[in-house]
């Protein structure tokens, strides 16, 4: 990658760019997996604009086991799978969470998955949070993965979410254009910061309640926790969000956020594909509380 900003340290820059913890970035640097302009550097190296930064992500030495976990398969062919992800399911294994993920389930149900993202993320083109429900696409082979990933990068993939937020949003439509990066005070969270990556979310109001608003969110970019961070930033955090909510937690089902619609051009047939899914019970249960109060 070519640096587009001046940063004080290379480790801070890579933490934001790669969405990694500081300790993991520092290990990559110290183990010689990061170079700047062809040379090894220290974690304290000061990044300059137009520096040529090269890195190699080293996967942990671990085996991911197939697990017989039920999946809601919306669509499948030789190239792509569309999954309606359940609440509470983590997308791919990570330290401390090697079982019960979508990847474990995919490896059980499908013989062929793309290898582009390594052994811990076979087939995974994009992800959604564990407690976010709804649609995501999975690639069965590397060619399909490359094409689908390019569509995402070029903002051609259509992704619409339904969200329930605290407070009444007065505008019918709005666009949130605010950069997102690692929270400087809490490295486990993301936040709107000047040095973050460009992030754009469009929102449309679907229904207003006494103390909340049901909205549609359309992603133009796909940053980690983007919708959750952006809505919190404008003072309308997601209802029931235990991390960014800033309000009372109703139950343990997680934030009211559902990936309702997914559209993309099929990597082989070039046909436009479009899928929708209903709001899950964990979402409608909370929604009913606000409907009764309205």
CATH homologous superfamily caption of the largest domain? Pseudouridine synthase
H-E string: HHEEEEEHEHEEEEEEHEEH
CATH class of the largest domain: Alpha Beta
CATH fold name of the largest domain, please?
Pseudouridine synthase
Please tally the helical runs, counting DSSP H or I stretches of 4 or more residues.
6
Class computed from helices, strands and strand pairing: alpha+beta
What proportion strand?
Answer: 25-35%
- Overall pLDDT: 91
Question: Under the CATH scheme, which architecture of the largest domain would be assigned?
Answer: 2-Layer Sandwich
Count of β-strands: 14
Helix content: 10-25%
Shape: globular
> How far do the termini sit from each other?
51 Å
The stretches of 5 or more residues where confidence is low (pLDDT under 50) are: none
Biggest β-sheet description: 9 strands, mixed
Tally the structural domains. 3
The whole-angstrom Rg is: 20 Å
In a nutshell, what does this entry contain?
By secondary structure, the chain is α+β, with helices and mostly antiparallel strands. Helix content is 20%, strand content 26%.
What can you see in these coordinates?
The chain is of the alpha+beta class and about 290 residues long. The chain folds into three domains: about 10-55, Structural Genomics Hypothetical 15.5 Kd Protein In mrcA-pckA Intergenic Region, Chain A (Roll), CATH 3.10.290.10; about 75-155, 2-Layer Sandwich (Pseudouridine synthase); about 160-260 and about 285-294, 2-Layer Sandwich (Pseudouridine synthase). About 20% of the residues lie in helices and about 25% in strands. It contains six helices and 14 strands. It has helices spanning about 10-20, 20-30, 100-110, 140-155, 225-235, 280-294; strands at about 35, 40, 55, 75, 80-85, 135-140, 160-165, 175, 180, 190, 200-210, 210-220, 255-265, 270-275. Strands 4, 5, 6, 7, 8, 11, 12, 13 and 14 form a nine-stranded mixed β-sheet that branches. It has a three-stranded antiparallel β-sheet with strand order 2-1-3. A two-stranded antiparallel sheet has the order 9-10. Helix 1 packs across helix 2. The protein is globular. The mean pLDDT is about 90.
